[in-house]
Specification:
The protein is about 20% helix and about 35% strand. With about 150 residues, the chain is of the alpha/beta class. It has a single domain, classed as D-tyrosyl-trna(Tyr) Deacylase, Chain: A. The strands form two sheets. Strands 1, 2, 3, 6, 7 and 8 form a six-stranded mixed β-sheet that branches. A hairpin with a 5-residue loop joins strand 4 and strand 5. The longest helix has 16 residues. The chain is globular, with a radius of gyration of 15 Å.
């Protein structure tokens, strides 16, 4: 699994162009989630814990020393199969490293449920397989890619 974590002042997602179905957060993380072949619950658990404890928020001295829990932050989770795109050959990305949709959706949903058990203030989610408009106000900018251990 792969997470692209962005520290945000705020973020939102609109599902299938429906403004009434806007999901948003304030200070915290917008996390794009990619699933590849062989990903499982153990990897999802590890990444959920890693994400929650990642110290990417500034303390009183301006140093990245605080976690999402420390700041009582919010999180927006969005599935993103293109995190496993390969652009090595030609000009059209290849997606053979992304898990099949059925398996990716199962692991994505498991990850979301795991994060919900970790006691965050607010969790919002995109919708797997939907057309989504994601708006991100990146704070920093601060962005990290975190892969599950092999």
């Amino acid at each position: 699994m792969r997470l692209l974590i962005q520290r945000v002042k705020r973020a939102s997602v609109i599902i299938d162009g429906n403004e009434k179905d806007k999901r948003e957060i304030n200070q915290g993380m917008c996390v794009l989630i990619g699933v590849t072949h062989g990903d499982d619950e153990k990897k999802a658990d590890w990444l959920a814990e890693k994400m929650l404890g990642l110290r990417i928020f500034n303390d009183a001295d301006g140093k990245m020393n605080l976690s999402l829990q420390d700041i009582n932050g919010e999180v927006l989770l969005v599935s993103q199969f293109t995190l496993y795109a390969s652009c090595a050959k030609g000009r059209r990305p290849g997606f053979s490293d992304a898990a099949k949709p059925e398996e990716a959706e199962r692991i994505y949903n498991y990850f979301v449920e795991k994060v919900k058990t970790l006691g965050l203030k607010k969790i919002s989610c995109g919708e797997f397989g939907a057309d989504m408009e994601v708006e991100i106000i990146n704070d920093g900018p601060v962005t990290f890619i975190v892969d599950s251990p092999e």
